[in-house]
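Regression test case RT-17, inverse folding.

Input:
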């Protein structure tokens, strides 16, 4: 009976000892490990901050190592190569995030973007970087059916997030590069200049001495301080594009807003633009802002075109599941090609895009309503990143020449014959082309997707 009564005491005693061990050894060890990790992370952040170009070289070297491994023949070389390639891309994404925080660019980069939208873009970018590695791993572990199951899950997740961004958050055109890479050289030079000349500017401000022309030439202005507009061969500088309300008045008969001559600014500060033109100019400059361009809101026609582009991978995979194959049947191939062509036609309708869109002052000076039957409103014009995305989609139509089944029946023999001709008759091309001939069938099955 005494032993039975002592059992609870032994349990309490053992739990007490475990708590003492945790308090005495485990918790201090964990806190010390976290402290060491924070110190190493801070050292790495400072290294990236002061050596962004060296970090870029390391990332590029890691990527080229993955490319060299892809041409070798040892076991699992393809999976290792894709792992290194994914790590290189993720490292670039992580280092860009550190540099934005170190250079104070986080608020600028996300001034018109909610944190939720940024998180969705980050998820999509992460999926793009690791998708091929996940697919190859699925093939290695679960075979062909596991590969298509993983691909279907990934594409459904991507389509769901894109639809949410399109309809709920009104993010407009979907881009392949969800997060714009940081221009490290430019931002590093700006950081060095600000760090170097900020004490001089502070001293000049404290002493209230007039700033010399040399200082004005050295200081780098922010994007919102000065706007440079190309006008044929001349460059006009506008430091103040928004006139004071006291300089304007509205005509009673027409309601048109014009300037008050008596309160006009000095000649050297005049822009010689009407208030309507100034407003249009501000919208156009914000539309093509270097770091945070304004998103073009899609009308019904463009919205349908973008919807077809987002749903195309899912429709292609669904069609392949219905007919019993994706790579061997023409039906999924033709459905995907047709959706791409229709989507681009809807996005690039003649009613909303004109060859005169590159004429800056033609846009500014056009009427507020219509110009020769074509809507020239700034809101209907793609910004620079959206124009690049449209051009990329047009070029991606050429990839259908390298996708099955068209590649297997028409392109394969002609392409291999052309590469062999270069390898046999052009000096030094043999060392480059023969490894390409060996790995081309595998690359065609892995990279030349119809759904991606």
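Golden output:
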């Amino acid at each position: 009976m005494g032993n039975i009564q002592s059992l609870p005491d032994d349990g309490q005693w053992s739990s007490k000892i475990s708590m003492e061990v945790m308090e005495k050894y485990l918790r201090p060890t964990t806190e010390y490990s976290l402290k060491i990790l924070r110190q190493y992370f801070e050292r790495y952040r400072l290294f990236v901050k002061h050596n962004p170009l060296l970090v870029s070289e390391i990332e590029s070297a890691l990527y080229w190592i993955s490319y060299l491994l892809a041409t070798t023949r040892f076991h699992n070389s393809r999976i290792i190569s894709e792992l290194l390639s994914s790590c290189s891309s993720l490292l670039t994404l992580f280092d860009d995030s550190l540099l934005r925080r170190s250079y104070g660019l986080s608020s600028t980069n996300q001034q018109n973007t909610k944190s939720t939208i940024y998180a969705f873009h980050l998820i999509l970018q992460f999926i793009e970087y690791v998708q091929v590695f996940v697919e190859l791993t699925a093939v290695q572990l679960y075979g062909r059916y596991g590969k298509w199951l993983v691909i279907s899950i990934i594409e459904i997740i991507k389509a769901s997030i894109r639809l949410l961004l399109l309809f709920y958050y009104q993010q407009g055109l979907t881009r392949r590069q969800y997060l714009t890479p940081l221009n490290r050289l430019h931002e590093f030079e700006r950081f060095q200049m600000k760090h170097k000349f900020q004490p001089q500017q502070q001293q000049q401000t404290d002493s209230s001495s007039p700033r010399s022309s040399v200082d004005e030439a050295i200081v780098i202005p922010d994007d919102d301080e000065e706007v440079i507009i190309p006008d044929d061969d001349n460059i006009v500088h506008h430091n103040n594009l928004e006139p004071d309300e006291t300089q304007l008045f509205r005509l009673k008969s027409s309601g048109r807003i014009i300037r008050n001559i008596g309160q006009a600014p000095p000649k050297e500060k005049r822009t010689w633009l009407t208030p309507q033109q100034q407003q249009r100019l501000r919208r156009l400059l914000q539309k093509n802002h270097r770091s945070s361009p304004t998103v073009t809101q899609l009308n019904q026609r463009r919205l349908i075109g973008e919807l077809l582009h987002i749903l195309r991978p899912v429709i292609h995979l669904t069609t392949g599941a219905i007919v019993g194959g994706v790579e061997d049947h023409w039906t999924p191939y033709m459905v995907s090609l047709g959706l791409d062509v229709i989507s681009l036609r809807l996005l690039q309708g003649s009613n909303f895009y004109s060859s005169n869109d590159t004429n800056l002052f033609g846009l500014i000076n056009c009427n507020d309503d219509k110009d020769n039957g074509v809507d020239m409103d700034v809101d209907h014009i793609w910004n620079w990143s959206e124009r690049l995305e449209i051009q990329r989609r047009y070029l991606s139509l050429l990839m259908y020449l390298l996708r099955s089944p068209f590649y297997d029946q028409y392109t394969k023999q002609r392409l291999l014959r052309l590469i062999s001709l270069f390898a046999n008759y052009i000096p030094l091309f043999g060392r480059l082309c023969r490894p390409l001939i060996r790995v081309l069938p595998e690359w065609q099955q892995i990279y030349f997707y119809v759904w991606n």
